[in-house]
Here is the input.
Amino acid sequence: MKIGWIGTGIMGFSMCKHLMDAGNKAIVFNRTQSKAQGLVELGAELAKTPAQVASSCDVLFTMVGYPSDVEQVYFGKDGIFEGLEEAKEKGEDAHTARILVDMTTTKPSLAVRIYEKAKELGCESLDAPVSGGDSGARNATLSIMVGGDASTLEKVKPLFDAMGKSVLLEGPAGAGQHTKMANQIQIAGTMVGMCEALAYSKAAGLDLKKMVATIAKGAAGCHSLDNLAPRVIRGDYEPGFIVEHFIKDMKIALEESRRMGLELKGLGLVESMYEELRDKGYGKAGTQALVKVIGDEF
Ligand code: NAP
Here is the structure.
């Protein structure tokens, strides 16, 4: 199997590497070429454009940043669909991607557009955003939320299994992205809870490590507490998951909620706290930096 991979950042690099470690050949592309270099050194071929990736692999994965990046790599100049259309016109589509998998966290409506365009070109597509953070990508323990056809998932499942520990079909195209939005709404709550618990405990003079170890064993236990509270305690605000990407996700979730006639006040509040954090200069920091808008002590 030859896989194509576009977007070799914090998440994509490790995820693509797991597929290579599982014995698949790879062709990769990233906007900043140097970030794909490590994979090239491990044997991946380097493409010049997303179109070239699309015309040189069996299954193509994308893991870029924002919905605008997804638009560009699929629908833009030298993009995936341009590559597929050109190969089809030339009758050279024997080695073009048959299955497209977008793992970026993006808009459900964009996932539906990709699904429809892929179908028009005789291809299949899945939206498959993930949860589990940078550590989940490194350790191949991601939770993968899939939207699309069951028959397509069946073909891609062995590849997903090399990247994650949970792979579930949530429904038709777009349902993976909706599930990821539910995930981000939940995380917004656990992030503000974790940061406020740390600020409160510091003000009360508690031993922060002991407090975290204690409450993580009870009903407060969660990923934010296990993985991000220790980073806050040691003053480590490196990403992980950058603040600007989390704001992007919360904005999509708020937009989708409004469209469905829902008002999510808690999510709106946390989103405004993260905007304040970004405006303080922490846009590229890890999401655990939220503690900076809660307490001056951190
Ligand atoms: P990242 O480190 O910024 O990686 C994204 C990569 O995509 C970057 O290397 C970027 O290139 C590349 N890219 C963007 N637009 C491109 C384009 N038009 N053509 C080619 N390459 C392009 O971000 P990440 O943390 O890996 O996150 C990726 C996605 O996963 C985001 O949607 C994020 O919300 C989601 N996610 C992240 C986490 C996490 O914990 N980090 C967890 C779950 C989901 P440059 O190097 O030039 O910027």
